[in-house]
Amino acid sequence: KLNIGFDTIQHGIEGLVYLLTESSKLMISEVDFQDSIRVLGFSDELNKSLLQLYLDNRKEIRSILGELAPRLPSYHSLEWRLDVQLASRSLRQQIKPAVTMKLRLNQNEDPTAQVLQTDPATLLHLIQQLEQALGEMKMNHCRRIARNMK
Amino acid sequence: QRFRFCGDLDCPDWVLAEISTLAKISSVKLKLICAQVLRDLLGEAIEYEKILKLTSDAKLESGDVKATIAVLSFILSSAAKHNVDSESLSSELQQLGLPKEHASGLCRSYEEKQSSLQDRLRACSLRLSQLGSVHWRVDYTLSSSELQEVNEPLVHLTFNVRDRECEKMTAVPVTLSANKFRVLLAELKQAQTLMNTLL
């Protein structure tokens, strides 16, 4: 309908997409946006409609870009079981407690599971380390940073 | 304050908050809703429309209906988990503010299904793999490329192992000579005797 070649239209669309995603990514102000596109030498009317397009869609583009970031596997749930080994082929009359755990993780909507086993002493050490990590949040250093981020 | 049905810990805040929602439903209807929640916990299909009909009198919003199901699920499964008897559960729920008739209706439903619930929870406990079945065959080797006259029996075993996660059956084939098989059998019998002393 516009009577232009296919390639030109494709380049045009790619250019517009790049302009909008880069501007939304960097969250540039109206003034900066206007200054940047003035260099391209378009008419004032076109500049104004491009600016309006940017402002209208900025939020949505940012939320879509936010979801593209790579994600580490996140915690889903933990199943556990406490067993006691009483005997084995090589040795009878044992008492060996063990905790078996299945750590379920979610990575980009894919569930994965990791099976772990430990004796009670290591488990207590693990709990102690995790409690120490939680305790760090209450230290002055972390509190100062959290306050500044708000 | 510590509650036995919460595993001797404090009652979670959200459970406390929903007790007042439970009190809005009549005690008769609450017992019927409990029966539905128990069906879900036992692995049968829950009839959500019935629950909606039962809660319609109390004029609960859809969020409240889901919260009611969640809190009943928690109370019933947690009580079964910690092996709480129904009288203790009833008194603890009344301490949390649930009216007496509601608590006794709930606990009567709980008492009927307590052991089935515990059996179901036991079956759902963490288990990595499970032996499905064992197939065997005894062959007699006459001859081979190494030795002209072998004349030895051979046992073929196939263990069908089910992986608890993906419900897939894996076949593990094992071939043993007669002597190795005798050793395996003797060891397994020893293990079985040990297991029987514990039962």
UniProtKB/TrEMBL annotation, chain A:
Protein name: COMD2 protein
Gene from which this protein is expressed: Commd2
InterPro entries associated with the record: COMM, Commd2
Higher taxonomy: Eukaryota, Metazoa, Chordata, Craniata, Vertebrata
Domain COMM: 74-141
TrEMBL record, chain B:
Residues of the COMM domain: 130-199
CDD domains linked: Commd4
One of the Pfam families matching this protein, by short name: COMM_HN
Coiled-coil regions listed: none
Superkingdom to which the source organism belongs: Eukaryota
Protein name from the UniProt record: COMD4 protein
Taxon lineage: Eukaryota, Metazoa, Chordata, Craniata, Vertebrata
Gene from which the chain derives: Commd4
